[in-house]
# Entry
Amino acid sequence: MITTKLYNRYQTVIPAEIRKKIHVDPDSIIEWSINEKGKVELEFRKRVTEKDLIGLVKEELPYNSVEIKKRAGKGLKW
# Structure
């Protein structure tokens, strides 16, 4: 069993052995829950970035960002 300290601002450290085993990085999101037996469970997931979203939308849109910016500058809706 690995133990860590809970600091005065409720911060703690994820031990290196565990970080390496589950491959977490500093941008990971930790989801906390308590199961039906009262045990704390942690789920690590990657933070979604703009880079992750690039290429997800394949549909060609009928306008472009330059046109939207021009119209917005004139107070027009797109």
